[in-house]
Structures are given as C-alpha cells and as structure tokens.
Amino acid sequence: MKIDESKLDSIIKNYNNEQGSLISILQDIQAEYQYLPREALDHVAKSLKIPRVQVFGVATFFKTFSLKPKGKQLIHVCMGTACHVRGSKMVLEELERKLGIKAGDTTQDNEYTLETVNCVGACALGPVVVKNEEYRGLMTPIKVESLLGTKKAKR
Amino acid sequence: MKLSSVKELEDLRKKIQSRRDPDKPCIAVCGGPGCLAKQCLQVRDEFIKEISAKGLKNNVDIRTTGCHGYCERGPIALIFPQGIFYQRLSIDDVAEIVDNTIINNKIVPRLLYSDVEAKQVIEKENDIPFYKKQTRLILGNNSMIDPHSIEDYLAIGGYSALGKVLGSMKSFEVLEDIKKSGLRGRGGGGFHTGRKWESTRDAPGDIKYVICNADEGDPGAFMDRSILEGNPHSVLEGMIIGAYTIGSSEGYVYVRNEYPLALKNVTFAIKQARELGLLGNNILGSGFSFDVKVNRGGGAFVCGESTALMASLEGKPGEPRAKYIHTSEKGLWDKPSNLNNVETWANVPMIINKGSEWYSGIGTESSKGTKVFSLVGKINNTGLVEVPMGMTLREIIFDIGGGIPGGKAFKAVQTGGPSGGCIPEEHLDIPVDYERLTEVGSMMGSGGMIVMDEDTCMVDLAKYFTNFLEEESCGKCVPCREGLRRMGEILKDITQGKGSMEDLLLIEDLAGMLKDASLCGLGITAANPVMSTLKYFRDEYVAHITDHKCPAGVCRELITYGIDPDNCTGCGLCKKNCPPEAISGERKQTHVLDTEKCIKCGICYDVCKFDAVRKE
Fold first, then answer.
1. From edge to edge, which strands make up the β-sheet containing B421-424?
2. Given A58, A120, A126, which is nearest B317 (Cβ)?
3. What is the ipTM of this complex?
4. Which fold has domain B458-546?
C-alpha cells in the first residue's frame, strides 16, 4: 500500500519524535487509516530510531490496534460482565450469523467489521452494542436486524 | 488570565459567585454514559430550542453535566433552584416541562419518579429510595458542574484545597493529613494512600512522577469514567496536591482509549487549568511547578497493573515486572513514581478542605470515607452508587438497588472485577470494607458490583472470567499464561458435561499454583472467581459433572429447547425468527421444535410472549 509519508511525519512531529509516545503515534495513525498499514509501521520505526520488532510488538500487544483493514461500519459488541450476565453472547452469535463472519473479521464486501470489546462502561444498559460510535442498549438477538438496517438483514 | 496568588484565586471565585443568581432557573441534563446511550443530547437540544423559542435564553441556564448515577431512569434532568428530578425523558416531554415548571413553577407529576410500594410520586432527588441512603461526596457535585466549565468548579469551591495547601501548608503537613484520614487506594489493592505518597516522597531523586490510573479495565465498572467525565478538575486538583506533597513536577493521566469523552474532558480541563495558572510554572505564585500530560491506553486489561501501565507510558508493550523493586523508587523511566486511581485522587481535595478527622469519621475501623460502586447486572436500579464504607451488601442491593427484577431470586453478587469473587446470599449482611470482602473470598477492587439471579450459571461465569483473563494475560510468566489456559479448558469441559470430579481437585491445584507463582496481580488473583464459585456453589459444578445438567439453564450443551403445547397459541413469532428454521407449525396451531436442527440460540425463548418455549 502507498502511504503518505508527510502525513506520518506530521503525526510523529506532534510528539517531538519521542520514543515514549509510540502508542499515541500509532493511535493517531490508526485514526487516519482505520488500521495500521505495514509500511506506516516501518516508517515509524525508522523515524523514531527504534527496532521494527518493538513497533510491531506494541502494535500487536494492544487490542486497540489492528493490522488488518476494517470495514466501512464498525460494530462492537460489549462482552463486559454486566452484559455477559444479561446475554451478550447470544447477541454476538446472532450478529455473526446475520453477517456471516466471526468476531474480529470483516465482511467480504468490506461493509462491516465485527469486534468484541471488554467493557464500554455503559453497564446499566447491557447488553450494549456500539455501531459506529452510537450506543445501542438493552440489545437482544431479535433487535440485531434493526441494528443492521436493511442491508444484510435477510437470512 | 493567569492567577499569581491564592488571593487572586479567591477573588476570582468571589467574582464568579457574585455573578451567579441562586434563584435563576437551571436545567441540568445528565450527560453520563447511560443517559448518552438513551439519547439525552437530543433532549438537551430540545430544551435549548424550546427555551430560545419562548424568549427565555437569558433567563434560564442549561447545563450538560456528568453522570447523576441513576442510569436506570435516564435520560434525567434536574431543575434548579427547586431541585426537581425528572426522569425517563424524551424530546416530547420538553415543552411541557418548560411551560409548566420553568414558566409557571408547576410540577409535571407524570415525569417524576414514582414509588411503586408507597404509590406516590417523589419530587426531589434526595427523597428517592435510590439516593436516600447514599452519601454522594464525590458524585454529588456532578449535577452542579458542566465539565467544560472551570467556573462551575470554582463556584462550588473548586481548587480551594489547592489554595489552602499552597498558601498555608508545608508538604509534610499535607502528608500527615492524608495519612491521618485513612484514605486507601480505590483502584483495587487498597494500599494506604498516605504511606504510598510518603515512600515516593522519601525516595532519592530530583525527578519524580505522579500518575493517575484511568485505565478502568474491570468489565462491569464505570465509576472512574463518570468521575473523569463529570468532574475532571477534582481529579486534577488531587493530583496537583499530591505532586506538591511528593515533590513532583510532572504527571500523567493514563486514560482508556474506549472512553473518548473522559479523554476529551480531562484534556480540556488541563488546558483550562493551565490558562488560569493552576498548572504550569510557579502555580499561584508559590514557586511550585507541575504539569500534566494525557496518554491513551491501548485496550489492555493488564495495564491497570502499575508496572505494566508505566511500561505502556514508556511506549512499550504493557508487561508487568517483578515487584521487588518498588515503583516508588524506580517506576516510570526508572524514576520514583506514585500512581493512584481516579477515585483516590478525587478524594484528596475534600480531605484537605474538611480535615482528616472529618474524613476518618466516615466508614469502618479500617476503611474510611465513601466508595463508589457500579451496581449492575440483574438489578432493578442500575447505576452508580456512592455509600459510606461499612454499609452492608444487602442495603446496597436491596434498599438502594431495589432488588432483583422480575420476581427472580438473588443468587450472588460479584465484586472486584475479574480478580474478585462471587458472594452468596448468606454473606449479604457483611459490612462492605476492604477486609470483610477479602475474608469472604472476594475483594473491593475498583468497585464493580454485578448482581446475579437464579438464571446465572456460576460455572459459566467462572469460565467467562477465566477466558477473559486468559485473553488479557500478557504472556510474560508461564503460570498465568498456561495456567489460565488449562483452567479454561477444564471449565469448558465441565460446562459441556464432559467434566469429572477429579477436575475439581485439579482446579484447586491450578489455583494454588497461579496464586503462588504468578508475576503480577492479574495472575495472583486470577483464580478468585473460580475458587469463590467452587466454594459457595459447588453443587452447581457437581450438577454439571454428575447429572449433566445446568441448573440455571445457561450451558448450551446441557439444555434442550421445546415448545409447551398448552401455552403455544400458534402465533408464529418463534418460527419466523428461528435462524435454522427448526420450528414448524400452521398458524394458530401448536408449533413443534425439531431438536435435531435446533442450534440453541435462544431466540425463540426470547421472542415468545406466551411463555410457551421451555428450556430443560
């Protein structure tokens, strides 16, 4: 993939080329591309003068980072304890069935990425699903259809 | 404008207070995470529209605040000066409130909280059972503050503790105050805050760091989020006082990336505090300098552990290290570092303002002050509650929480997050403090309190926590990495009816190994959920193993679904929604479920309105 190095450089410059800001830099890059392109990681390693293995180590250690491109729409299913005791697993499974993918994957048409998250802190409304940053509370498998809208709603 | 003395700070406060008319109507709309998910911002915007349409823009204040706590009843709006509590609002209710309450000082009874038992409506927040027994020292201010307004915080006495400290106290006097108050860490361990400060203060070195741990990773807990979102200045004020005491000039707030609003609000608050000279060089002309940076977490639970968090702040993977070298001596960048969690920091200003004697008068012998809990799960009044230490679990769950919904029976309450344990009915009368919770096999943790009813399978729950921790284990030490994996496999076998009684002995062995040999707190406490459920709910484990039954009807391999012909009306709803098309039947005829095709997704059970789908 072709990446815009000047864009990366301006992100890195925001943090004064500090090695300690590696996580923040990667977060900003991910905000730009929705994932971490390999070439961008190489560039960061070079600019910060740290081994690539350290950059990749951080990029794969933290859950927030993805080395795979994501779909246009992001669906996060909260798997926190409060959501778990109220049946979040059933909601996740219904989403997996309707979208035809497993958690962590992206649909072939690049429309949806389905992910789980440990807790979004909206426990009072569990089970919670966050679709493109919009919170949907008190979810049940049956509400999955309206969450997805018309697209992909057919079994 | 930069304030250059304590006097200038107090003058500014007087000016702000004198500009404010206590009788001016104010609509405080809760903007906490629960209400946000219930579209409270649309309600707020409707208030803004309606107030300007009525030409009242200059006569009424509208404030978007942090969490009011009672998430179950959101969206919530408090109307000042009367203090009327309106709940479960929609945009259609706004005009009525403005017309009646704001313009004509009349109440709208249908939007008030109604007490089912007493068959009455309740007007004021403090009279509602959910709030009545609480002591909201930390959360109470949320409804008075727009988190983006430092003026709001100053108006209610904000930064006066900092003024007192810099104007009239030596750092050792502050330390004595914190030690005497008995404040203990609210993040999990419950270490004495004063002692922690002291060891960093006494450690040799010129550069020292203070860190605020806002990486609230416990699933089922959102106290720190609500404090940081709703009242970020209280946390900053605590940090500045701590830094003064310890002798630090640089601080960090480490916020979870999953909390964008907390991140935004604390970043904004830091900017405002800098503009007023409350952060930066020569704070209030005292010669003391301190500034704070914000770092975002990367979604790793283990980063709640102090050494892992510090590694992450250095831009490395969040792996903990052995603790024989204390972080108070060698922490971040190998410098003496003091880390406290959000709620701990937020306690500091009020201890300085009201005195350590006042503070230590609240709570029990060993645990002082109040504690915020997130009361969630199978409970009527979900939300954030703040109670004095020493209140019983029963009072919290039944008096404040309103008990279990749907007439179901209480089974257990889980405290302390994945490091904690499940507490059964027989221990509900213990007073909540650090020691008592540990005695019954759980812990205080950061304050998650997840209530479970008869429909929760305790083996499944133990499996859930074990899987959670297995995934979150950083993998550095073998006992945690491999021990949790094996533990998860054994629990999986049991929930599938493939377990044996010897497995229970193996679990106990593994648990002992995890506790003795793991590197950090994650592994050391990882067996708590399993061991506490095994201790109190052994019969459920045995039922899975010997009878191949899941008494709560949760474990999929051990249940079958069926349709009760007596109750089935033939409405066809289950048939329509069944993913594998396992249900057949003509309209208005009894339906039949083909157990061969059934994938046990539970949708039919959920959609049936006639209680005709049975789990066995």
1. B383-388, B370-377, B448-453, B410-415, B421-424
2. A58
3. 0.89
4. de novo design (two linked rop proteins) (1.20.1440)
